Automatic annotation (TrEMBL):
Keywords: Lyase, Metal-binding, Zinc. Its cofactor is Zn(2+). Belongs to the PTPS family. QueD subfamily. This is 6-carboxy-5,6,7,8-tetrahydropterin synthase. It is an enzyme of class 4 (lyase).
Amino acid sequence: MIYITRRERFNAAHRLYKEEWTQEKNEEVFGNCSNINWHGHNFDLYVTVKGKVNPETGFLIDLKLMKELITENIIEKLDHKNINLDVDFMRGKMASTENIAIEIFKILKPIFLEHKVELHAIRLHETENNYVEYFGD
């Protein structure tokens, strides 16, 4: 079994809040992340797939194809967007980094399976100090 990771980047804004709570309660729970004027991050997305090397090509997956799949299905939907308002797969969900990573995993898992590789993990860096990793259910 071999693992390959591709890094992509996107910039996006979001806000952590619950509509049913007061602004004071949102600020108490989410701090500055509940700013009513939103806030943004320069996200680093790491997508790791695993499988067996194709003896004919020497590849697990062509990295150009991996980039295309991630860009088309994830980056184009997130980059320079408001995650709460503009991103279809995040509608109705708390726009936490944890939930973003889970939703990215759900989207990419079947796409990579079509190309005979298994999605192993999503690692999403929100800041240089904070990131989440998701390995599926």
